[in-house]
Amino acid sequence: MNDRESLYEIADLKLEGIVGRLSDLGVRDYMDTLNDFTEKFPEMEENLKSALADEDYARYTKCLIVIKDALEAIHATELAQTCQREVYGITKMANIRHDKLEAQMAYILSNVSMLSIDIQMLDYKRRQAAEQPDYDGLSGAGSGADAKPEAKPDAKPEPAPDEDEEEVRKKTILAVDDQMIFLGALRNHLRGTPYHIVCTASGEDALHYLKNNRPDLFILDVIMPEMDGYELAQRIRDRGQTAPIIFLTGNSSRDSVTKAITAGAADFIVKPVNKEQVLERISKFI
After folding, report:
1. Would you state the CATH architecture of domain 144-282?
2. pTM of the model
3. How far is CA 44 from CA 38, 52, 67, 184, in A?
4. DSSP readout, 6-74?
């Protein structure tokens, strides 16, 4: 897949009728624009959070407009429109509801952070392809963003004694996070889906579960006490577990994303988690 075709993999970029008109040089320039966005977004995000924390709603609105303009520049039009609607809503409020703004900001930043991470993963794969001329897409079970998801798990997970036949047939996801609120959100989002989620609150608990089970997918929080997601990912691979790993993160900085990819990330889910994002990310692998 060439650079032009790969751009269409990022769903939040609305590129119909745009990329096709660009020259090869134009495509490269556009990719540079995307990477520039990922470099600048953490600062934009911090400015927005700071303005809201200070209850400086005028500055908050200006910061939101900066993000909107940056999204428009890279053709992330639907996300830009979401920011614009928020700006319009704030200007029409007779009384500012701080809790409502906090919830909306979290939703916006979650989606924009996910876009930033998607762009960085695309750039990572491009650089891998440049270093390996025979690179043919995702390959290597344990190498993060360049790892092909398994067609089938090596072995069926052993069900808990109280699982019924329907649960046994479901694909098993092992989710690890020390914060129960996020595990609870994942459980709620996966109700009524063809997935069975097993939740543990620590890396040690997860490794104990893996002694007798082989999940079809891992969802690991990045920041955890005693054993963080990076170390846990390595220990999972050391035990011969080859299922794809999705990292839960609230940090879309380049250093954080690169470290996660190097540790084995096949994809990411950004906190606070929302159902649409969770199901879309999981369905890419199982």
Report:
1. 3-Layer(aba) Sandwich (3.40)
2. 0.81
3. 10, 13, 7, 30
4. HGGG-TTS--TTTGGGS-HHHHHHHHHHHHHHHHHHHHHHHHHHHHHHTT-HHHHHHHHHHHHHHHHHT
d(CA 13, CA 29): 15
Spans of all domains in the chain? 3-131, 144-282
Q: Which residues pair with 249 in a beta bridge?
A: 270
pLDDT given for residue 125 in this prediction: 86
pLDDT tens figures, 151-172: 444 444 444 444 454 545 689 9
Enter the tokens of residue 121.
């993963």
- In 3-state terms, what secondary structure has residue 227? coil
> Residue 281 above 90 pLDDT?
yes
**Residue 85 confidence (pLDDT) above 60:** yes
Q: Give Cβ neighbours of residue 204 (< 8 Å, ≥ 6 apart).
A: 226, 227
> pLDDT at position 94, please?
74
